Structures are given as C-alpha cells and as structure tokens.
Amino acid sequence: MSTEKTATVLPVRTTAEVWPVTVIGMGESPKEREKASPDGEVTYASGCILRVQRKDGSLKADKSASVHVTKPAGLYELGVIYRASGRVYVQPYENNGRVALSITVEQLVPADADTGSSSRTAASTAKEKAA
Predict the structure, then answer these.
(1) Is residue 43 part of a domain?
(2) Residue 128 within any structural domain of the chain
C-alpha cells in the first residue's frame, strides 16, 4: 500500500459496469461537439436525457446532466431507453449556482440488448419528461 498522498482527479474515469448510465432517447441524431473526450476522442451530443433512480426506487429525468458519446448511433429514438456500454467519464461543473454533470460514454445501446424491453409506456415516459 502506497503512502503517497494524491489529490482527487477529475473527470472520474470508470466503466458502465461500475457506474451504470441509462438515458431516454429524444428522437435526435448525435451532433459533433468541439470538446474532446479526456482521451482526446471526438465527442457527440446524444440529445438524450439522463435517468436517475431516487432513494425510493422511482425514476426521475435529470435535465441538468448532459450525456455525450464517442461512438454514436445514427439516431436515439424517442422514448427508447438506452444504457451506456464501455468507458464512462463524469465531470461535475457549476451551472447557474447548481452542480451539473457532463457525462461522456463510449456508446449508448438499447437497454433491451440484453436486459429486457427498452420501450416505455407513454405514461411513464411523460412522467420522466415532466420530472
């Protein structure tokens, strides 16, 4: 065990297996960004909205977080749930006096790729959008 003191390093570098990220598609095509990933890769704004699980287990849409990808799909379909796959970088920042998150993931894949249905009912999707 090292006794060397180190500081917190941002962004947090992890994987989707350790830090799961789920989003809901908004029917948008990814758009290239000027800002590169921490590893220097081109990033794309996904247009998706982050889904956060509350302590009581309910889901909430977090519009203060931005989710970007390095390997984008052609379109993130409206109402479809996607999950991150591969590397994940999380960078907190201040926006209008509030803490927000910039999340860059390797790719977003439909949640039903291996975990069940990715489609949401209209009612539950509307609740998430309104939250």
Answers:
(1) yes
(2) no
Please state, in angstroms and rounded to a whole number, the distance separating the CA atoms of residues 34 and 78: 25
Q: How many domains does the chain have?
A: 1
| Amino acid identity, position 35 | K
**Which range of residues forms the domain containing residue 47?**
12-112
Tens digit of pLDDT for each residue in 32-75?
A: 999 999 899 999 999 999 999 889 989 899 888 999 999 999 99
pLDDT at 123 over 70: no
Using the CB atoms, write b or e for 53-66: b if 16+ within 10 Å. Answer: eeeeeebebbeebb
The residue with tokens 């052609």 is 74
- Residue 59 CA to residue 43 CA, distance in Å, equals 27
